[in-house]
Amino acid sequence: MREKTDSQLDTTLYSLPLRREVRAVMHFLRAQSVPVRTGLDVGFTNAGVSRLLRLVGGYWMTVEPTQQRRTLVAAALGQETVLNLGKEGDLPFEDKQFDAVVLAHGVLAGSVQSAVIIRECHRVLNTGGVLLLTVEYRKSLGLAALLNRQRVVSGAGGCYTEAEIFHLLKDGFDVLGFRFSCRFWVQMVRQWVDRRRTSGIRGANNGWLRVVYGLAWLMDVPLFWTRGHQMTVCARRKGWRAKHVRVLGDHTPVSDAILFNPRREGGHLSLEKFK
Known about the structure:
Elements: H1 16-30, E1 38-42, H2 47-54, E2 59-64, H3 67-77, E3 82-84, E4 98-103, H4 112-124, E5 125-137, H5 143-147, E6 159-160, H6 162-169, E7 173-181, H7 184-198, H8 206-220, E8 230-237
Parallel strand pairs: 1-2, 1-4, 2-3, 4-5, 5-6
Antiparallel strand pairs: 5-8, 7-8
């Protein structure tokens, strides 16, 4: 592993939302009583973040959801192997290979594939391993979301409440904690930047955006008591036990929620090949 310190990996080059996400992930990783020996990060795209996670210690691998993103990260990481996430969300590893799995913001899309990815994370984690994931937090009365016409920023994936996260992880994980970031003013900047980029409008360089995000962060200080629009979750692996939950609603029939096991015969890799 390359010998680098936090100061050498300058996180100020990243956008404020990404810095907040990385800070929350690092907080949870460093809070673990047992050091991480093997780790997996999924979907960060930014190779600098993957290097930063490696500062926690242990042997890490990176998986990207598309071939294009895999190529970008592999070029930046040099000799390290970067693999692709399967089309159904399956991970190309054998069972119980990692002490920690980190899912980047945007990996969970709020669909059936999200359940598959969670099941796969459980499969490749060692007993007692930790799963860290970052998602958009859905507020029932979120003013920023209303002003943005409930449009989620590009690449953010699905929106979840705490209850929905508990439901998603209920079969194989114990949720240990949440950390929230990107409160009202920072979220307004995120949404404004996203609208400009999706409309093809240019002219906002990274240095200028850092200033705007900095001002928004200061304006959010009095709102410390509120929950932000970005949520990082820490959960610990336990034995998988599918729980059948009755769902009642005016438009939804009563049915059992059963997670599909996506594991295929063969095709999974052991870390021994890469060490």
